[in-house]
Amino acid sequence: MIKEDQTRWLWYPGDFEIRQGLLQNFSREERSYDWPAYWNMDDCHKNVKFKRYYDLADETSFVVHAVGIGYAEVNGKKYPFGEKIHCASGKNKVRVFVGNTEGLPAMYIEGEVIKSDIGWAASNFIEELPAGWSALYLTQDRDPNKVYFATETVQAVSVAECQGGVLIDYGRAIFGTIAIKKLNTAKPVTICYGESDAEALDIEMCYYKEENAVADTVPRKRAFRYLFIPELTPEQVEIDAIHEFIPLENQASFHSDNALMNKIWDISVETFTLCSGLFFLDGIKRDRWIWSGDAYQSYFINQYLFFDEDINTRTMLALRGQNEIKQHMNTIVDYSILWIIAVENHYMMSGNVEFLKQIYPKMKSLMDYLMAQTDELGFIYGREKDWIFIDWSEMDKDGTLAAEQVLLLKAYNAMIVCGSIVGENTAEYSQKYTVLEKNLMTYFWDEEKGAFIDSYQSGNRHVTRHANIFAVLFDFVDETKADKILKNVLLNDEITQITTPYFKYYEQDALCKLGQTQTVYQIICDYWGGMVEQNAVTFWEEYIPEETGNDVYEMYGDPFGKSLCHAWGASPIYLIGRYFAGISPTSPGYATFLIEPQLACFSELESTFPVKNGSVTLKKNKDQLIVRSTKEGGTLKLNGEAFELAANQEYTFELANELAENLS
Amino acid sequence: MIKEDQTRWLWYPGDFEIRQGLLQNFSREERSYDWPAYWNMDDCHKNVKFKRYYDLADETSFVVHAVGIGYAEVNGKKYPFGEKIHCASGKNKVRVFVGNTEGLPAMYIEGEVIKSDIGWAASNFIEELPAGWSALYLTQDRDPNKVYFATETVQAVSVAECQGGVLIDYGRAIFGTIAIKKLNTAKPVTICYGESDAEALDIEMCYYKEENAVADTVPRKRAFRYLFIPELTPEQVEIDAIHEFIPLENQASFHSDNALMNKIWDISVETFTLCSGLFFLDGIKRDRWIWSGDAYQSYFINQYLFFDEDINTRTMLALRGQNEIKQHMNTIVDYSILWIIAVENHYMMSGNVEFLKQIYPKMKSLMDYLMAQTDELGFIYGREKDWIFIDWSEMDKDGTLAAEQVLLLKAYNAMIVCGSIVGENTAEYSQKYTVLEKNLMTYFWDEEKGAFIDSYQSGNRHVTRHANIFAVLFDFVDETKADKILKNVLLNDEITQITTPYFKYYEQDALCKLGQTQTVYQIICDYWGGMVEQNAVTFWEEYIPEETGNDVYEMYGDPFGKSLCHAWGASPIYLIGRYFAGISPTSPGYATFLIEPQLACFSELESTFPVKNGSVTLKKNKDQLIVRSTKEGGTLKLNGEAFELAANQEYTFELANELAENLS
Lengths: 664, 664
Prior knowledge:
Oligomer: homodimer
Helix content of chain A: 25-40%
CATH architecture of the largest domain in chain A: Alpha/alpha barrel
Largest interface: A-B, 41 and 41 residues
Radius of gyration of chain A: 27 Å
Strand content of chain A: 25-35%
Distance between the termini of chain A: 34 Å
Number of strands of chain A: 30
């Protein structure tokens, strides 16, 4: 925890994330050109005013530093930055004006009493709010316009002659740069990068290439495992990889009697760690953009691995941008809705009311933006240039679409929950919720098919998995309907299979929720296990078991279009933590939480998962389960019985006969 | 005229002006600190997409250059910038994506057929509009993120020992930097700047100071006439002033038998030229901000001097910012309204429908913003944080204020005129106009006082000049009421005098309009003549005849707070052109125009003033007036008679007996 009186860099709240989000979304690179994201992107404010009143017992002095131009002002008198300012005892009004045309305006005040700690207001000359800050920028030498990565030097695990050049393998995925330690050649070389050896060896089609490299070349940050340098021999070259990362603490562990599962866990952790920087990225090679849909899944994985609240909030603030909404998030209607839903989940995870107060006005304006495109039945429709995505899958998108309505319904729910916490009137959302829920069931639930249909307007009564999955996940169906969905949709091979890993995530989630952990266990072993068999060091954007050879790297019509380290590939972390270990908060910030393990698939297992300010450890050894939580408020549910767990106490249960008995 | 197929830099329309406007408003400097403007300021978009379809007779090639990152795309295939791209004959879709996190994203295409000329669309991923460009950025080497000033080296007219140092006088106002040609001293020096010698000699209180200057120091752009270097002798130093400017063509000339008037004209031209850069600045030393009220007056002066349409549009676009309105212009409600009125005037001056089409949506949204703060009588009121300025003068600001209503009425009129031209429905404005006009007369016109009162709500029936002046200027009063206003207000010494030069401008304008040219002639001779007598080389922000010594430099409680080169000081140019020469457009772009000279004050005079694509020359010699227009469409009105003037023909009139006779 950072103390309130700790000096830190301050800025207009949200601006750091918006500015860095812009830079992040501009960092995509492909075959010698840059590829800035193709949607309208906000930037931070360019001039900001900070204000604070002090009632001083004694005179004091301070020095204001800033990134940008401007001045400090005490009781109306102006001073340049960097100058020691003396302040008399008594009441003082201190203001700091900072402008920065090239980046984030920020300030840092050195002083004993007057300093840039908690208590400053920041204004964009329209709204005055508590100033923004980040735990990553606490000292004067940390410019919040720069990202300070920790680095790790990685040596090659193999340097081999190949195709008339040198192929270097670092044995793991690197997201960083390189340090050339030896380059014995007179002419500059071309360094080809690859997530796979096939990509690095393809001089034409590899994504990244450093041309005309010489000994002191330091290329930009890139993702790779392999380097290939044509027309060179292993003796001529020695290159270290410099992996760059923002340190995150892994708060979870998993070890079982199933070696494949253990490997899947480890690779999931590696994958997710790589994709977690200032923000949740979709993948480290491609796109490196902040996608709201991908981020949504990452928030859940984070909850069971790092339990890092800051990366969640940074990602949410970057995605949402400034107050004025000009376009849906990443242009996608469902991504806007998922963002709202995610805020509620973050609140349940963190219990952070301060953040909710900061973000609620932006939830509200986004909800207004969404409500403006609903019809007389309360159904949301797409407007020109809106992308009604849901999934790449074939869907009957004639008229309004069921899956969007289910999401919207959940978003109203999120508004009601979050609005109530911050003391806002949520009556409008309740009323909209009621109408939409009724109409969703009336128009989209097909009793005969026992499932939600995509479109009621087309007359086709076409069923896909998507709306049904969301309805299960968000608890919009009773047990009877849930059973029907399970039978008629999720376990029905005649319903088109989910083909994207993005939606596979939601599908596994729903299957687990409906008690199909055994099925999901098998899917994890098969699907993720399939990648392990292919010697994956990170999990891919997509895995198609039928593909062989270099075909596995192809995606979007590009021979190396597939990202081999993709955040959503790490979903086993969430599935294991949420359903196999069975941990979830039942009140905000895990004041109370449930542990409902489903460990039948494991004979032996030892795993720890984070909860807010604590952790829960489960050890299973055949018929014995040992449970320990470092935090008060946990309830263990085992075979229908509930046990309240005291903090830091070890409880042992017998699992024989599917019955549990408290032996402790 | 720039040909349509001339290659040029392209950007999202308005963004160049918004970006440079931001930089301009951040350029203020005062006593070693920077002073960015204190309102919310927009920046340009950070990623932009350009698009154009070509149907090519033959294959061709082109090279895309950009300020920023991104790529070019032909029929879906992407290429890096700077690479020669070949394009087959037939239909081709060319797109260019440019992102720039530190400034204006812009592109320039070299090519025979495919090039960055007129015809490209630019998109911010929400709106697609014809791309923006400027005649100042036509060649590849001109980065539209930089301003390329022409320079003029100015040598000192005197270098004198003074107060133990060297005082250098350049004999004129400089807006630029310096070149140190000789500095024979071992230790760095302090260079103090002054618009006046008093300011330069005041080491403590001068606005700008270059500390620790050495021989190769090149200070930032500043305004000065004098430099003072303490502890140095004239033998030790030689410094040239490097004046920086954006060339503007003076299209007017004036010479009369009154030497003082001639001097006032020349100093007005000098003053206005100095304050006209990329934008109209209020002053060159202080504030250097783009103020809508100051700019409003500059548009009119420009019309009679440079007739430069580009500086008008650049200033208007910079002031208005991006689509979303968060605050009134410079925080001032009347400044927003004046901006709308100015657009109509610009259209009357230029006849430029293209610009009107570009700007109309931004007029409309600003008008919506204004209308949202009107009451049930149609009166506009100030909201929290809105600045109801009008003038620094004492006014009865209880409730809604008369002057604001008169401005709003004129703004409705501007919306009706401009909206009709671009084919928009303006019925709402007509309706609002009718209501407001009626209520203005009912509530604010005081028949007994024969004048508009400030406030009808206070019950004080207090009369100031302001609303009355605006009502005259905008033709909202009939002859009877106008006469009353002249007698009861303008020529009534009991009504508080206008004290600010800003409002003096409107007052002279109204007096002239009511035929008081004789009075105004005397005011010009006295007020501006007073500054001439004080050896002014440019006209000041304010002149108070009673002040003597260094007191003349004081303003806003600061000993050198007064700007000695202030745009509005140049208003004699407008008054002479508009009323004495009497030239004004009667249809857009001077398709028809009026020449209604009021030259009784001059015995001899020769003057030329611009009209759109032409000029009008008047020569008076005692009783003879010679008139010549280079453009068709002029009508001369002399003593109640009208004469249509053919182009390029000289007409001579006898002025004897106040009657005119066409002798040509």
